[in-house]
Amino acid sequence: MSVIYDSFIAPPCHEQIEILYQDEHLVLINKPAGLLSLSGKNPQNLDSVHRRLVQIFPGCTLVHRLDFGTSGLMVVARNKAVNAALCQQFSQRTVTKVYSALLCGHLDKNEGVIDAAIAKDPALFPLMSICSIHGKPARSRYRVVERFYHEQEDKRLLPLTRVQLTPETGRTHQLRIHCQQLGHPILGCDLYGGRLLAGAEQTPRLMLHASELHFVHPISEERINARHACPF
């Protein structure tokens, strides 16, 4: 059996978690980029969304996670019953998540679907891989918002496409690896080619933001339609 060794050390994150909504059952937050969702095993990776929030909301638990480099909306349960109810919504795929992203290059099509199974490979950790034999089904939809050129400090023009991404499944690194599969990795993605485009090397962060989260409040049964503007 392959042993997975995670050598990643997260740099300090000085940005604060923005609490957008709270009641006695759940908390809705905007996670800053560069903050782990859960603390790592390495003692240098203790700072995380959960570690910070449990100081304010004792007993709170994460219902889902965002990658370290991803910013945006997360819902956090304040007790076990609410966590179970929300996890059920996620597992039944009744929760809708929408992301905003900048992709390298200009996409040809205005919208489409990426249907490619994703597998873990301990030998490649932390990368995931596309594998139709061993992978779990994964499906994402994309829609182009705009195509444009970003002028660099040296006057070079960087071709970018702003897209809206809607994952229909929730695999690890799904949007990042699916965009790479599309031939247009997410700008700033160090794992899946988002720094390879000439001029993209110094991108300060992963250009991926969880901009919408739609679910049913497990207690009031009210439909929650949360939106947070993309910061880039």
Characteristic key phrases:
single chain, mainly beta, about 230 residues
Protein architecture, described:
By secondary structure, the chain is mainly beta. Helix content is 12%, strand content 34%. The strands form two sheets. Strands 1, 2, 3, 4, 5, 6, 9, 10, 11 and 12 form a ten-stranded mixed beta sheet that branches. It has a two-stranded antiparallel ribbon with strand order 7-8. A hairpin with a 6-residue loop joins strand 11 and strand 12. It is globular and about 50 Å long. The model has no long low-confidence stretch (mean pLDDT 95). This is tRNA pseudouridine32 synthase/23S rRNA pseudouridine746 synthase. InterPro entries: PsdUridine_synth_cat_dom_sf, PsdUridine_synth_RluA-like_CS, PsdUridine_synth_RsuA/RluA, RluA_PseudoU_synthase. It is an enzyme of class 5 (isomerase). GO terms for molecular function: 23S rRNA pseudouridine(746) synthase activity; tRNA pseudouridine(32) synthase activity. Its EC number is 5.4.99.28, 5.4.99.29.
Q: How many beta-strand runs?
A: 12
Number of helices: 3
Provide the structure class: mainly beta
For the termini, the CA-CA separation is 42 Å
Shape: globular
* Major β-sheet annotation: 10 strands, mixed
Q: Which runs of at least 5 residues are low in confidence (pLDDT < 50)?
A: none
What's the rounded overall pLDDT mean? 95
- Percentage of residues assigned to helices: 10-25%
Radius of gyration: 18 Å
| Elements, N to C (H/E) | EEHEEHEEEEEEHEE
Strand content: 25-35%
Sequence-ordered SSE layout with sheet pairings:
Blueprint: E1 18-22, E2 26-31, H1 49-56, E3 61-62, E4 71-77, H2 80-91, E5 96-104, E6 111-115, E7 118-120, E8 128-130, E9 139-151, E10 157-167, H3 174-182, E11 208-216, E12 223-227
Parallel strand pairs: 4-11
Antiparallel strand pairs: 1-2, 2-4, 3-4, 5-10, 5-11, 6-9, 7-8, 9-10, 11-12
